[in-house]
Please model this.
Amino acid sequence: MSGQLSQFPVSSLYVHVPFCAQKCEYCAFFSEAAKGETVNRYVDSIIREMELTAPDLKPETIFFGGGTPSLLNLQQWEKVLSNMQRLKLSNAREWTVECNPATVSLEKAKLLRSHGVNRISMGVQSLDANLLDRLGRVHSREMVFKSFDILRAAGFENINVDLMFAIPGQTMAVWKETLAEAVALGSEHLSCYEVIYEEDTPLYQQLKAGEFDVNEELACSMYEELLSAAEANGFRQYEIANFARSNSSSEIPDYACKHNVNYWRGGSFYGLGPSASGYIDGVRTKNWSNTTLYCEQLEKGQRAIESREELTPLSRAGELAAFGLRMTAGWPLVEFQKRTGFDLRSEWKTEIAQMVDLGYARLDEQKFQLTSRGLRYADWAAERFLRI
Ligand code: SF4
Model:
């Protein structure tokens, strides 16, 4: 049962930058207000963590997420990027940095581009001024258009636009307008997520206090609208919430986010920075979600790992099945077996039969995949595959 692929050197790197200008109403990610000295200390620590992991790394994909990575100033970026060069970590095929439209300058964009960053993921969320305010975003709609032009001028030819739908107060008309304006930007990639209500967020408290209701039906119609707008404008859906342009007819579009595809296919990745998770050969690690503690550990020369969990081969395979189902391509049966050592058809025979009966999935000689109806219930389907 051991047919797992060897994962060294690790070809995927995630770096968490835990700073934001202010906290958005819906956000449960680990991030805090950026204070000059803390950010400098973080920069030194993340470089230290890169030094500790570089011998095991040969990144083909890098993703700087947050938080708001674009909040680092020019000097801080310069330091991170030159050290990555020194450590031979900067030759990735795809290198993404998340940007908030309020923190993009031409100088910064050019600096990132000249050091090998070739993909930007822009957190737009909405193009409606009232909703941006409602969500607690720091940027305006005008900043989105301006930043997009700056990124293009700096040479970025692969840009993702992140949107949210089913935001309290968002009507179908507003969603349609946002979608139309967003696709008109001409980005290569689109990610659109339904609002989720995470405990400990102001939005969740407002929902609990009865300040608004969740309208499931409207959310479904907005998702349908998204699917047709994306298709009509040349995007191909390759995951529940992700759409990309493609110059070829390959099953996964050319501009799909390779970093995330690796993640959904259960590939190994290092996760650096406070609160970041990593996953290497069935072992999941998680760093401390506390920037001071994180820095203290790194200053002592050790990684700031809070927990380490080794998954059994079967629970690992179950997770892999669940992740991969999010992709429209589903799971090629041979690839799944090669990666996990398990046969999807025999190990999850009952569950698969149930999903096929319900019209949520289809199974043929080559692959198992959710239908477009089933993708709406992907979380439910994913749970059926999990094993302890
Ligand atoms: S910018 Fe992103 S990470 Fe920061 S608070 Fe808003 S949603 Fe959370």
In short: The chain is about 40% helix and 20% strand.
